Amino acid sequence: MKYKLSLNEIEVMNWDESVLIASIKELKNEDFIVIETEPPLNNSTFLQTMYDEGEYTVEIRYELEEDFKQYSIVVKDIDMVIELFKEYYNQELPNISSWEDISAYMKTYIERECMGVTKEMSHPTFLECFQDDIYYSQECEEGPFGSDTGFDVFNYIQNEIRKDEDCENEEEYDWDDYPKSLMESLFKEEYIEPSTEVSDEDLKIKKEIYYSSQVCISVAFTLIKVYGELSEELMKQCILAVERLNYYYRLSNGTSNVKFVKMLDDLHTFTE
């Protein structure tokens, strides 16, 4: 049995149990430590913990034939954390009967081809925060996937993730510039970045701004649906894009669009 110890993604060399214990004791806020096994220890491939504000979130992973299971427990007692890692190091698995099964939150949710937008293949966090029908409609123009542009973006990203292993982990792919690159490569149009200010010049290119906003919104919602998370920068862009579409709606109708308002409320709830 071979073990690999990493601290904040940096491998620790020439370590033993005493180094493992010392490393756990020295963890600071948002530090994390991982011990990996090769071959798996009764299907378990790693045990890890992250320290934050006096609490340790400990997680263990089991690899199955075509799936995986990951469990988590929050611990305040450092001695308990040390004991869990010592036992794992000595090839003894923890009793996970009281641990939370977080497997569903760790998975990537890709729709089966030609199935459209479904709740079945949506990340649990997406299902919790975005429950309205507009988020699953292929006909609601205001929804993230209801316009032709939004649905094209949704399908394009899904296909990219299927074929590109780098996309399988949201953190390993730079999505912040994706609305711009997608607008230019897929639609062959200039991307107009979302902004809180709308000038007279903007009104002259309202159509271009409208399509750019749709692309940005669809990219953001697709990533939340797949991964259950979104970068702070892309979330900011998405909120600005929805606000801009709502602004144009108010110019034409004298009042806000209830669907855009709903999207903004849900986006702000997601970020809390």
Question: Which features characterize this protein?
Answer:
272 residues; 2 domains; 7-stranded antiparallel sheet; 43% helix
Which class do the helix and strand fractions yield?
alpha+beta
Distance between the termini: 43 Å
What is the H/E order? EEHEEEEHEHHHHHHHH
Report the helical percentage. 40-55%
Name the strands of the widest sheet in spatial order: 2-1-3-4-5-6-7
Shape descriptor:
elongated
Q: How many individual β-strands? A: 7
Task: Give a verbal description of the structure.
The protein has 272 residues and is of the alpha+beta class. It folds into 2 domains: 2-105, no CATH class; 109-271, no CATH class. Helices cover 43% and strands 17% of the residues. It is built from 10 helices and 7 strands. The protein has a 7-stranded antiparallel beta sheet with strand order 2-1-3-4-5-6-7. A hairpin with a 2-residue loop joins β3 and β4 (44-52). 29% of the residues are buried.
